[in-house]
Fold this sequence. Notes:
- The structure is a single chain.
- The protein is an alpha/beta fold.
- The chain folds into 2 domains: about 25-270, Alanine racemase (TIM Barrel), CATH 3.20.20; about 285-390, Lyase, Ornithine Decarboxylase, Chain A, domain 1, CATH 2.40.37.20.
- Helices cover about 30% and strands about 25% of the residues.
- The strands form 3 sheets. Strands 1, 12, 13, 14, 15, 16, 17, 18 and 19 form a 9-stranded mixed beta sheet that branches. It has an 8-stranded parallel beta barrel with strand order 2-3-4-5-6-9-10-11, surrounded by 5 helices.
- Helix 4 links the parallel strand 3 and strand 4 (about 85-90).
- Helix 8 crosses helix 10 (about 205-235).
- The model has no long low-confidence stretch (mean pLDDT about 95).
Amino acid sequence: MDDLQRYNRATAHLDPPFAVLDLPALRANAEGMLHRAHGKPIRVASKSIRSRAVLERILTMDGFTGIMAFTLPEALWLVSTGMRNVLVAYPTVDRAALAELAAEPLAAREITIMVDRIDHLDLVDSAVAGVHDRQEIRLCLDIDAGYLAFGGRFRAGVRRSPIRESDQAADLATQIAKRPGFRLVGLMAYEAQIAGVGDDPPGKPALTRAIRLMQTRSQRELITRRGRIVQAVHQITDLEFVNGGGTGSIEKTARERAITEIAAGSGFFHPRLFDFYRGFGGHPAALFALPVVRRPAPGVVTVLGGGYPASGAPGADRLPQPYLPCGLRYDPNEGAGEVQTPLVGPAAEDLRTGDRVWFRHAKAGELCERFASLHLIDGDRVVDEVPTYRGEGRTFL
């Protein structure tokens, strides 16, 4: 039985739109990620999952330890529900959440927040000034892992931290060490230009060569620079963890001696943007189904909804992929629509009103912002239905 038949049979009792998670595919993807990590633990990036039940399922597997959250309110909620060892990957200016963190011993013990300048500490002190019996705040220092060339005129990688060199990191670590109420426990450096950029884009040989050259040089530079930064900060304080990488760079980042853990999340669902890497493959695990609601012309069907673009620079690669049945594509004049999406191609001839089309989102967890639950499929059966963050009434971003 092929996947189209299996998914249609498993969900025959459901009316689309709905989203599913293929459990065997999820497990296979998780095993592949662990193999690539060469024994180093993987911290699970919650923004790529956005379902507490699925996070809990992943964390029962050996090799996955801790959560990388994307907001402090999310981290506080996760800890209140039993999650532990939560790193907030982005700085927070949420004063109410900071006050809650400083007032709650369990949260303060299990949550680490991100900083990259002394202003962050000033804001925390201001936010928690009225807290009785303030708890010590655990901090992680974010390091810029971007690649610079040609005297800084070329940059690859996301713009995150202003801290780039070992002396800058050591200076901030020294200031933190002198500041009561804070403890620096970790470092993080996310090499987005390696982990988040596929090195095998189809039909673009010149771009492929350029990406591979950039990534090779970036990795060499980062190994040296990240090692120096870790060594410099270790002279000032003992670190519990040094975090790096992402789904696209697991096996590369794991080789670095300075790294103690890898961050990854997208690899569990294996969305469309992760099809274009040489070093690993995966199984599409998270899908959504939309119903065919009309046939406006021969060779054309229209499905309900579908306008679920992914974040990032706008482009065709940010649109969901019409996945099953094979042979469907967007009408170039309409694309993915807010309330309806026309699809063209050979497969459209065989679809009838009421049939369903299966899509893959371009990114991972953003799918869960559109659906209140995930139907868990094992074989050709739905074995459970679990809420997404949205389904639990949680919309953090």
